[in-house]
Amino acid sequence: MRASRFIFPLLSTLLAARAADPPAGLIPVKLDEFFGSTADAVMEVVKQDLQRSGRIVLTDENPQWTVTGSSSGGRVKGVLLDAKGEVVLTIQYGLDDPSTEYVEVKDLRTNAHEFSDDVIEMITGQPGIAARQIAFIRESGGRRALCTVDTSGRNLRVIPTGRLPVSSPAFSPGNEQLAFSLTNDGQTDTWLTSLDDGAASAIILASGTNSGASISPDGTRIALTMSHEGNPDIYISLIAGTHSKRLTNSDSIEFSPAWSPDSSRLVFCSDGTGSPQLYIMSRSGGEPQRLSTRWQTCTDPDWCPDGVRIAFTAHRGSSRSIAIYDLNRGTSAQIAAGGWDPSWAADARHLVYVKSDGLHILDTVTGDSRKLVSGNVSEPTWSR
Amino acid sequence: MNPTTFLSRAAALGVTAFLVSCSGLPDHVHDGSLPDDEAEMSAVPQRSDQLGLKDPGVESVAVVPFRGRELHADSKRRLYPVLERLKANPSQHLVIGGFSGRQPSEEYARQLAEARARLVRRWFEDEDISPDRLHTAAYGQETGSNSVELGVFTPAP
Question: Which residues 76-95 of B have a C-beta within 8 angstroms of A?
Fold first, then answer.
């Protein structure tokens, strides 16, 4: 009896403590009250952003960090406090004071997303993705449109590209420009448009099919497939399209290049063995190295910002799935069945991909997937 | 947000704690210099033609079925009548439009259609048709057909 008197309080204390412990690996953060006329809306956006990061658990018990702030009109003032209650970050979003250069007239949600991303980067050391954009092709009524959407599925925007069929969107670093392909009666060329003012210009207008552009993370070059010298091969040009260099030279078809995070290498597809497979090559040339994925057909590679993983569409018969190749281990594994066209987020954790019912975002750590956009969509790419 | 913008803004607001404690931020700032391999690069050739099968005045003359990327004997048999027509009419030009059928990816479909059209173009070049008279176009999986379509036209003098 005496023992149980001690054990039960001790057990209940331990259980209570365990219930308050955050799940392993998650950082406990308290989302405290915001003030101002639009505080509730901002709090809701920040709450979703922090939870969707996959790295944070919101709790009032023993938080390592506390997020608070105020909001009125379209502006957000965000504050981050550490475990001792000391302010470590105070930033205003949507300032319109002409005496400062930090004038950004953006909507409330965008300002809230940017605050979330700064908080996530501050406390996890990894980039946030809430304010990043996803570009993709949406097909409706026989027409294809180039669209962007934010990672909460809001702010869907159609980028003007004219009436010609559009394909292969690719962001420049910093999310300022978008490359894409336009096809006019069998002639496909690569264009670049400014997301600020909508100005667009053709940057690669060579004979043949010039498509599948990927802009290097350092912003200096574009890799794409060109065929003006006789066969579809990978070329690299300067970002303005003024110079080009043929990287591959074979009788097979090389396509879908994607840059490594340090802009030194490319992964691409080649059908040299019959069906498309993945290859890696230095941007300065040399012999392509085939990746042994053990899949019948591999397409749509995208190099993870962590530098060691490559996501791709794995084909077996008529079924498609998302798989990841690990460069350190030299092995690949399926992570999502029934999907294709994967693109990594800047946090090296989330992937956007296509399923038959629309765009989805996959957390590659938990396996959780959520639908972002419904409809007939293709070729999503995430701004980084 | 652009990390550089973030740093500038944070510094302007006096957020020194962030600047001190945050590691792993990108330290790359592009200095505006040209890439080191620019010397190996050449000017991108500009398109000299913009012709396709849908161009007014193009008369469809043959559909050549394809399997894979090879030009098989039965496909070549469909090319000979067109070759004879081009030889008999030296002022006529040929539009060669590639189609891919359904493929593992849209980009592969585009490039497979291009490769098929290029293969047929090379065949006509090998048969001594001037490259100036040959125009290729690629339609990808637009129609679901695995073929190359041929059309002829006579350019305005």
Answer: none
